Amino acid sequence: MSTSTDSIREIILNQPSSAKVFHRFDIDLCLQADLSLEGACRDLQLSVDQVLEKLADAEAQEKGGVALDPDSIPLARLIQHIVRIHHHCVRQELPRLAEMASKVAAMRSDRAPELTKVAELIEKLRGEMHAHIEKEEEVLFPFISQMDQESIVAYPPAHACFRSVAHPIFMMEQEHESADHIVADLIQLTNNCEPPTWACVTHIALFSGLREFESDLRQHVHLENDVLFPRAIQLETQLKARS
Ligand SMILES: [Fe+2]
Ligand SMILES: [Fe+2]
Question: Which stretches of 33-165 are DSSP H helices?
Answer without folding.
Answer: 37-44, 48-64, 75-81, 88-108, 114-135, 141-147
